[in-house]
């Protein structure tokens, strides 16, 4: 809260939550924010679309508002200009050529079967075993895991085995 110059815990809570959601999670191999929203978290103007030369001139909210207004007026002017330059489709009808034939490029293409290979999460070598770790569900060789005494199909990779029995 001191970093953000706030004395109310309710305002500081947002910063704490953001810091927590920005931390890397080793289980899901990304941050919680990325897992939820599908993109990296954006903080401040440095992650915005504005160029650096414009960013260094912005110090107040009023300056930022002026930049936003300028961008909006530029976009409107460009849209109007594009709409005026376009010709109606009916004028260009004579230029459209329809070809009802088949795609000629498909005939010469190779049709090979694609073999998807899986790699063992322990030794990182190719595996054709249908076994997966009971906890993390990653592919594993029979000899790279730890099977339970009652069922050989109930197998744990070394990583999950160590986390349970340590």
Automatic annotation (TrEMBL):
GO MF assignments: nucleic acid binding
Start and end residues of each SCAN domain:
128-163
Q: Which domain of life is it from?
A: Eukaryota
Under InterPro entries, the record lists:
RNaseH_sf (IPR036397), Znf_FYVE_PHD (IPR011011), Znf_SCAND3 (IPR057560)
Q: Under what name is this protein listed? A: SCAN domain-containing protein
Q: Which organism is it from?
A: Araneus ventricosus
Lineage in the entry?
Answer: Eukaryota, Metazoa, Ecdysozoa, Arthropoda, Chelicerata
